[in-house]
Amino acid sequence: MKSISSPWRRPLQRFYWHSVLALTLFFVLGTLLLVLLVRGTLSGLDVRLALEVGGPVGLLVAALEVYVYPQLFARVRLVTRLGLGMLFYLAGFWLLLFLIRRIFGNAVDNTLVAALDAEGFQSWRALAIRPEGQAFVRLLTGYGILSLFTSLLYQLSNKIGRPALLRLFLGRYHHPVAEQRIFLFVDVKGSTALAEELGNERYSHLIRDFFFDMGAPIVAHRGEIYQYVGDEVVVTWEWQPGLQNARCVRCFFAMQEAINRRRDYYLRTYGAVPAFKAGLHGGPVMATQVGAVKTELVFHGDVLNTTARIEAKCNALNSRLLLSASLYEALSHPPEFRFLALGAFPLRGKAGTVALYSAEIQ
Predict the structure, then answer these.
(1) Which is the most buried residue in 35, 54, 76, 112, by most CB within 10 A?
(2) Low-confidence ranges of the chain (pLDDT < 70)
(3) Under 8 Å CB-to-CB from 213, ≥6 apart: which residues?
(4) CB 331, CB 246: distance < 8 Å
(5) Burial category of 297 from C-beta neighbours within 10 Å (exposed 0-12, middle 13-18, buried 19 and up)
(6) Domain 170-361 is of which CATH architecture?
(7) Which of 91, 81, 82 is nearest to 57 (CA)?
(8) Dihedral, CA of residue 173, residue 283, residue 308 and residue 265, to nearest 10
(9) Which of 141, 121, 127 is nearest to 43 (CA)?
């Protein structure tokens, strides 16, 4: 992964570490499920086995998924990535078995092994001494399948976001749900001219780098990435978390700081530093899961249309960040920010006018 400059390094590292813990826990629970499917019952010894086996193996799989594979397989197709990943997993399993065999091979609790064998399930330490036969093949097969599911789960969480994935699993959005949310629409300025200057391929690389650099500030300010639309990223917060300490406003300027820190890289690589503008607004929306062929979490409501129109006014009003008066009134006003009332303006597609404020750092 690319190096992240402080102060975003710690929040992003915490985000990755939480991912590792979540995948490891998933693997431990998956181990218990495998035992339950094979034997039909669970005992206290099975829980111990799940921790002794699923814990180390799950940690290995999670570390590969979070820290290694994004660098190693960044430019390969998903099917190829999964296939190569499985080869790494199998090699890792063999190495782990070898190490545990070396560590525990001369100090196995024979009483535990006998008790486990009586329960009809080979212990990890027993297998560490005898990594062969049908039990070993079943172990590798079961963990191979479990690793595949873990990898697919992680890819899915990256696709729709971890909070959204959890809500979908819990069935929160099976029917439309009313929520109060804040949205931040961030758009690259002069993208058409930039694309013509760089060409499609280099411009695509620039946008990919730009979105990558946006990730750490968004995580640090507890935002959720709702959508990438062309050269635009849409960030959302639940109402109170987004208002707390003007987190939604701070996020924008943190994004600007992140790009400024990488200024030399962008100039060296693309000959240009991406400039961007943003609109902020919040209010009631409906959240629901839509689609049968391709399921997706979507938000419906006038709030999104209004936020998009606010962002579109940035050029005309010569502002980097515009926010609605209704959101301004709900925010705390930290002294490091300067808010300027610009007046009420008609927005395309809306019958009335919307009062706007610009925000800058003092």
Answers:
(1) 54
(2) 1-16, 38-46, 49, 71, 73-76, 78, 93-94, 96-140, 158-164, 167-168, 292, 294
(3) 255, 258, 259, 262
(4) yes
(5) buried
(6) 2-Layer Sandwich (3.30)
(7) 91
(8) -80
(9) 121
Helix axes 200-220, 9-39, angle to 10 degrees: 90
Which pair of structure tokens corresponds to residue 302?
């006038």
Q: Could you identify the residue written with the tokens 């495998």?
A: 34
Residue 116 has what pLDDT? 41
Helices 247-261 and 200-220, packing angle to 10 deg: 130
Q: Which amino acid is at 64?
A: L
Using CA atoms, how far apart are residues 7 and 220, in angstroms rounded to an integer?
9
Rounded Cα distance, 279 and 182, in Å: 11
pTM for this predicted structure: 0.70
φ and ψ of 286, to 5 deg: -110, 130
DSSP helix/strand/coil, 293: coil
DSSP 8-state class, residue 221: T
Q: Which of 226, 222, 246 is nearest to 235 (CA)?
A: 226
Distance of CA 113 to the CA centre of its chain: 41
Q: How far is CA 39 from the centre of its chain?
A: 36
Give the start-to-end residue ranges of the domains of the chain.
Answer: 9-160, 170-361
Measured on CA atoms in the order 300, 188, 328, 253, is the torsion positive or negative? positive
